[in-house]
Design goal:
The structure holds two protein chains of two kinds. Chain A is built from 15 helices and no strands. By secondary structure, chain A is mostly helical. Chain A has one domain. The longest helix of chain A has 36 residues, at 20-55. Chain B has a single domain, classed as Cytochrome-c3 Hydrogenase, chain B, CATH 1.10.645. Chain B has 15 helices and eight strands. The relative contact order of chain B is 0.20. The chains are: A mainly alpha, B alpha+beta. Chains A and B meet through α7, α11, α13 and α14 of A and β3, α4, α5, α7 and α14 of B.
Chain lengths: 375, 367
């Protein structure tokens, strides 16, 4: 039973009307989830800007507040006071709703994230299914923005975005299936409780596929084709300014927060950890995941759209299928031997297999360079 | 149902973050593929060639700073070389060596920017660029020492240089020359073996050697196509015949080769700097030239190997204090004539990369 259910029970026992015992906990849950999301977004933005500065031998923002921690607030005030411009030729309702969709899909996922033993709003028994369904909503926002802006660059970004999401959803779900086979449950909480060994060790190949896929869905470097500043000038939000732009910005980092949380839950054994409180462990792991994203962003150039597609279909998909097959075989083996949990030797076996598959795959399945089309 | 499909026309620039200023490409796209491209120039035209006719020979030097603003020293040099040829002025030995030192420092600085912005166009979020800015800062500090300016130096004079170098200049450059190979290794570690960098640049934007020659492309772009053509060796001006250095060339003539040629040219420039500092003789840094120079009636063309290619100045004198005609052969302008052939068939993402690999500066294209 979740915290909110306890709260609701407590309210009913203390004579609160029946309808209010539903409304009050729901509102409380939404507020807590939103506050958590905003706090984490601010932490991530700060880390991103300062960290990127460190990677690039410059100090990063250091003027607003001690060590520049108030920079995000300063930016927010600036963006709020900007003029909100809508192009005359824009499709008004679509153009207006796109940033809202972008942001709310991030909040919705947060409902089922188990930050400690319980989730924010509810411990849904099909948690991961819900997450993968809602996370696909983000691309609708991108398509709406790109299509509704009536701008050619935005349109290119929208087309790229849809193609990218459709391609990368497949390997991501295959990687998640590997986790589900071992944990035997779709509920986020049970996935964490079944991780005596973090799944990143049992599923190294799956983790890498998931990581690449999520980086692509999040539109993070090296897969940030939808906003590619040097090619299509930040793509889908080229025509947005003021608060609408801020919502896109928040939505992007909101999705980062949520993706780090999902990754922590699926692969890094969630809230588990010695000494420190559970929620703190969860946040630390989220930040670690984010720092890896940041590291990649600071190092890697962007890949091209056709290479992105061939990476998904020719490299990640075959490896994802292989990973699923091997995991299934191992689970079957475990069941036949009657082991209660996965033994440690499997860790080394899987790490070895992952290395072999990636090396063979990169030599045979995926070719880079060239790519001219005869016209 | 039959879908009605037609190519999309997109005007990339003049306001676009990757067009190095106000360049405009009119692209016809089929999805993401470029089926036609047309480079459009002229947004930064200031009429420098015409302005030169209204100024005395010395007053033209600051105008040349504004051509290729990432290579002001070499612009100065090409111009004063033309005037010296026109008026048959002998330049002191020390000035020649100092000009070589400045020119090679400028080449390193310009190539750093070329490679750094190429990284940016590939989507590197500024990281390689900012590492290269670190070394460019040092070079700009050297130039600030000698002439007080950081971008438009106006340092060369007809018959030499405006000042001799200050005391602290040589030790600082020596230190820089000793450190620079290590920094170049650092850039190569970041980029040369980067899988995504290779995927984006290898085999992309091939310019066949015949096409390069027939469109009179010069500089690193020509050398990347395998042609061993460098005016420092082919038609040695100043004192370049005294130094030992190689001309790096490419094989495939793709974006990656252009990148590698620039990286190797920086190493060669460091070699030249080492020798020039060692051989630098004492003496005057400027010959005695009258302030209002009146060259004899005639004409002269002088060209140098600027960082971006062959930079030439053609001057006609009518015996007055101002040139009768000044024509600039700008490498950036000539090099982008081959752009269309390189672009067709590639994607939008490649367009900015191929364009960046030519390394143009709009100040020089439009003059």
């Amino acid at each position: 039973m979740g915290l909110l259910a306890h709260f609701q029970k407590w309210l009913t026992e203390n004579g609160v009307p029946h309808w209010a015992s539903y409304v009050v906990p729901a509102l409380a849950g939404i507020i807590v989830a939103l506050l958590f999301l905003f706090a984490m977004i601010i932490v991530f933005i700060y880390l991103e800007r300062r960290g990127l500065g460190r990677f690039q031998i410059r100090p990063g923002p250091n003027r607003a507040g001690p060590f520049g921690i108030l920079q995000a607030f300063a930016d927010f005030i600036k963006v709020l006071t900007k003029e909100d411009i809508t192009p005359t030729a824009a499709d008004m309702p679509v153009h207006f709703l796109a940033p809202v969709v972008a942001f709310f899909s991030a909040i919705m996922i947060l409902a089922v994230i188990p930050i400690q033993r319980n989730a924010f709003i509810t411990n849904l028994n099909i948690g991961i299914l819900y997450v993968s369904a809602i996370s696909s909503l983000g691309v609708i926002a991108i398509f709406m923005a790109g299509f509704g802006s009536c701008n050619k660059y935005s349109l290119i970004a929208a087309m790229r975005g849809v193609a990218q999401l459709i391609s990368y959803e497949v390997p991501v779900l295959l990687a998640i299936a590997g986790v589900l086979l071992i944990s035997g449950s779709l509920a986020m909480r049970d996935i964490v409780s079944s991780q005596n060994i973090p799944f990143i060790l049992l599923q190294p190949l799956g983790f890498l596929i998931f990581f690449a896929g999520v980086a692509s869905e999040l539109n993070r470097s090296p897969f940030d084709l939808m906003e590619a500043e040097s090619e299509i000038i930040t793509g889908y939000h080229i025509e947005y300014s003021g608060m609408k732009f801020a919502l896109f910005y928040l939505g992007e980092y909101g999705h980062m927060v949520v993706a780090s949380a999902v990754m922590t839950t699926l692969y890094l054994s969630g809230w588990k950890g010695p000494v420190l409180p559970a929620a703190l462990w969860f946040i630390i792991k989220m930040i670690l995941v984010f720092l890896v994203f940041l590291w990649l962003r600071a190092t890697m150039p962007r890949i091209r759209v056709d290479q992105l597609m061939s990476l998904a279909w020719k490299f990640l998909l075959p490896l994802g299928l292989l990973n699923l097959f091997i995991t299934a075989a191992e689970v079957l083996w475990q069941d036949n031997m009657g082991w209660k949990q996965f033994p440690w030797p499997f860790v080394f076996l899987n790490l070895g297999l992952a290395a072999i598959f990636i090396i063979i795959g990169s030599k045979l399945l995926f070719k880079t360079g060239g790519g001219r089309v005869e016209v | 149902m039959v879908l009605k499909a037609e190519p999309m026309l997109i005007s990339m620039g003049p306001h676009h973050p990757s067009t190095h200023g106000v360049f405009r490409m009119r692209l016809v796209l089929d999805g993401e593929v470029i089926i036609d491209a047309e480079p459009m120039v002229g947004y930064l035209h200031r009429g420098i060639e015409k302005l030169a006719e209204t100024r005395t020979y010395t007053q033209v030097i600051p105008l040349t700073d504004r051509l290729d603003y990432l290579g002001s020293m070499t612009n100065n040099w090409a111009y004063v070389l033309a005037v010296e040829k026109l008026a048959s002025i002998k330049v002191p030995e020390r000035a020649e060596y100092l000009r070589v030192i400045m020119g090679e420092l400028m080449r390193i600085s310009s190539h750093l920017m070329a490679v750094g912005f190429l990284g940016n166009e590939l989507g590197c979020t500024f990281t390689p660029l900012l590492y290269m800015f670190r070394e460019r800062e040092k070079i700009m500090d050297f130039f600030e020492m000698v002439c007080g300016q950081r971008l438009t130096y106006n340092y060369m004079r007809i018959g030499g240089l405006s000042h001799d170098i200050p005391e602290e200049f040589l030790p600082a450059v020596k230190k820089f020359v000793a450190e620079m190979p290590h920094y170049i290794d650092e850039y190569e570690q970041l980029l040369s073996e980067n899988e995504i960098f290779l995927a984006r640049t290898k085999g992309v934007g091939i310019l066949p050697q015949e096409l390069a020659i027939s469109s009179s492309v010069t500089g690193p772009v020509l050398r990347a196509s395998g042609m061993r053509w460098d005016l420092r060796k082919a038609d040695p001006y100043s004192i370049y015949d005294r130094f030992e250095f190689d001309i790096p060339t490419g094989k495939v003539s793709d974006v990656y080769d252009r990148y590698l040629v620039r990286i190797q040219e920086m190493r060669q420039s460091v070699r030249i700097l080492e020798q020039a500092i060692k051989q630098l003789p004492p003496g005057e840094a400027r010959a005695k030239v009258p302030l209002l120079l009146r060259p004899p009636v005639g004409e002269a063309y002088a060209h140098i190997e600027a960082p971006k290619g062959e930079l030439g100045f053609y001057l006609v004198s009518d015996g007055s204090i101002a040139p009768y005609r000044c024509r600039i052969r700008a490498p950036s302008f000539t090099n982008i004539t081959a752009l269309r052939d390189m672009l067709i068939g590639w994607k939008i993402a490649d367009a900015v990369v191929i364009f960046g690999s030519i390394d143009i500066v709009l100040g020089e294209v439009d003059r």
